[in-house]
What we know:
This protein is globular. The longest helix is centred in the last third of the chain and has 29 residues, at 123-151. It is built from 10 helices and no strands. The protein is mostly helical. It has helices at residues 2-7, 13-35, 38-45, 48-57, 61-79, 82-85, 89-111, 123-151, 160-183, 189-195. It folds into 2 domains: 1-80; 87-183, no CATH class.
Amino acid sequence: MMIENFLRRPQTAGEIIADAVRVFGVLSVVIAAIWFELTDAGVLAFTLPGLLIPRFIGVRAGVDVAFCLTLLIAAWSNVFDLYTRIGWWDLAVHFVCTAAIAAVCYLLFSRLRFVPAPGENAVLGAVLLTTMLGLAMSALWEMVEWFGHAFISEDIFVAYGDTIADMAVGGLGAVLAGFAVSFLPLLRPETVQATR
């Protein structure tokens, strides 16, 4: 079913917009490679697999657009150095992006039948699993930042306090994502039926 979701033609204006955002993601890598630095193109390329996941799992168009835009805003914020220019931006992006990634990871794992489908388990279970996924993604994100600082460019900001704060707000976002997975219709109706 996941391959069918991916190959399915867009049926609504929202689905067309979601695919257009994915195309913009690919163009973003090219734009960054030509007019910015190769490390910027690399950061944007890092988002490309994530932009495809919502299409595979069959989320609603609005969720798809919001998720893809969240990833691209997080990546472009690095290109434009917004994380250091705007004091609160780093924490805001970690909160929103971790929430989005945690929710989509939970939905992906439910499609793979690693975890129960949304609505099939207790809210507490979904919240705990989504929070753990978000914290794991936060830790991975911070390791990538550390790797980039240590081996690619010392311009990448890494500090203990920043790392802990990023993971804390990311974890809070993941908690809220767990409630979203439990109570909001994030999947297209036909996808929900196929998941159960």
